[in-house]
Amino acid sequence: MKKVLGKHLICEFWEIDPDILNDSLLLIKTLQEGCESAGATVLGHLEHQFDPQGITIILLLSESHCSIHTYPELQYASVDIFTCGDEVEPQVALEYIHDKIGGKMKFRRIERGIPY
């Protein structure tokens, strides 16, 4: 029997407006609101703006984490959402993020845990 400890979404976004991908305030707000809409508790965040462009943002969640790495010059972003337990559905957060930043998206869902 396998116990699932968490749900992990590994996401690719492309054909995104470069201005969105270089707007840290918009992206932080989008990630926070997306995670909260999924039922997650946001504890804080770290961000780094690269020169001349690109951003990395990591949200610390009570349930685990959510991150985005942007490449405005490629109109690309990678998003990682990992939530533990049964109370949060990361796909709700992902759909919210996709709705706000647009573009095309694909993702892989992985169940995390130790088989025993």
Could you outline the blueprint of secondary structure elements for this entry?
Layout lengths: L5 E9 L3 H4 L2 H14 L4 E8 L5 E7 L2 E8 L4 E9 L5 H12 L2 E9 L4
Antiparallel strand pairs: 1-5, 1-6, 2-3, 3-4, 4-5
Could you explain the architecture of this structure?
Helix 2 (24-37) packs antiparallel against helix 3 (90-101). The chain contains 3 helices and 6 strands. It has a 6-stranded antiparallel sheet with strand order 2-3-4-5-1-6, covered by helices on one side. The longest helix has 14 residues, at 24-37. With 116 residues, the protein is of the alpha+beta class. The chain is globular. 26% of the residues lie in helices and 43% in strands.
Largest sheet: number of strands, sense, barrel closure: 6 strands, antiparallel
Radius of gyration (CA) equals 14 Å
How much helical structure, as a percent, in the residues?
25-40%
What's the rounded overall pLDDT mean? 95
Please give the number of β-strands: 6
What gap, in angstroms, lies between the N and C termini? 6 Å
Return the string of H and E elements.
Answer: EHHEEEEHE
Structural class: alpha+beta
Uncertain spans: none
Beta-strand level of the residues, as a percent range?
A: 35-45%
Shape from CA axes? globular
Kindly report the spatial arrangement of strands forming the biggest sheet: 2-3-4-5-1-6
The number of helical elements comes to: 3
